[in-house]
Amino acid sequence: SKKPVRVAVTGAAGQIGYALLFRIASGEMLGKDQPVILQLLELPIEKALEALRGVMMELEDCAFPLLAGMEAHSDPMTAFKDTDYALLVGARPRGPGMERADLLAANAQIFTAQGKALNAVASRDVKVLVVGNPANTNAYIAMKSAPDLKPGNFTAMLRLDHNRAASQIAAKTGKPVSAIKKLAVWGNHSPTMYADYRFATIDGASVKDTINDQAWNKDVFLPTVGKRGAAIIAARGVSSAASAANAAIDHMRDWALGTHGEWVTMGVPSNGEYGIPKDVMFGFPVTCENGEYKIVEGLPIDEFSQACIDKTLAELIGERDAVQDLL
Ligand code: NAX
Questions:
Q1: Ligand 1 in contact with 239 (CB < 6 A)?
Q2: Is 189 in the pocket of ligand 1 (CB under 6 A)?
Q3: For the chain, how big is the Rg over CA atoms in Å?
Q4: Active-site residue among 162, 189, 251, 260?
Q5: pLDDT, tens digit, for every residue of 129-184?
Q6: ipTM passes above 0.90
Q7: pTM above 0.90, yes or no
């Protein structure tokens, strides 16, 4: 049987953590033959650590055959020791009256410390997924704080946006989501992201030609996907958790086990693809093979798409510039 791998999860006592840990431990992320050791990080405050103890009791009570070990930590330097995978879910939420700059600064502090800890103690091949918002910029900060790790070890979660887009297209066309291929979401995990179905196929037919309605794209599809997080908060009273955890599982599973030629969306550091400045953590279509992702290159970008990409890029550059002095 396989040797256990180490999976660190931060914010483990939060609502995404609660929807995520049980699925990792049951083998849905890394395979039904891959034992895992969970290294869980929470804030060093009694309430959070007590809640984490409760979650760990429930994990024990599942008696998962693949759960080879479990640790609680309040210091990233121990939580990330030798970790092969790190899901950075915990982040500072926006409090009442908090300005955007304050939010960026508070998270810069968290993700600098976590990036440094990963740099110091994690496996050299660690795969890092940042879920905590602002996810792209937090991933950028962690990457910049870990100079001894490859930039490509760091990614941000755009998969929820990708899955939301797929689901809207399935509903519009009356086809199952499984029939949709070659969808892409460009840019920031924020309402500025650009979900792009120009290359997508459904049962082999062009999605764009099947829908054939640019007004629907612009006036319905893009706003629906972009504002989906807010719609869920309005309906549920709290933010998306199960769907976010599901997207995190999809992202890591595909990165680790491969996509067999199919496209998925990951936020990854640019190497200059599509004119995105180097190191900007940007949503791109990728394929994954042998534990590596590869950006799908050479796609034509029309005028409408370029304007959308420019807008989401401008937002990311603004976030990057706001934290530059804190790194
Ligand atoms: P919760 O507030 O339920 O849980 C967050 C947990 O993180 C708390 O238990 C808190 O104690 C812990 N935490 C905070 N700072 C920490 C730190 N420095 N180290 C370790 N633990 C820390 O939030 P939840 O609903 O689970 O959401 C978590 C994050 O995901 C938020 O930043 C949220 O905005 C973000 N999201 C990102 C999405 C994406 O697609 N990228 C979608 C869903 C979600 O909104």
A1: yes
A2: yes
A3: 19
A4: 189
A5: 999 999 999 999 999 999 999 999 999 999 999 999 999 999 999 999 999 999 99
A6: yes
A7: yes
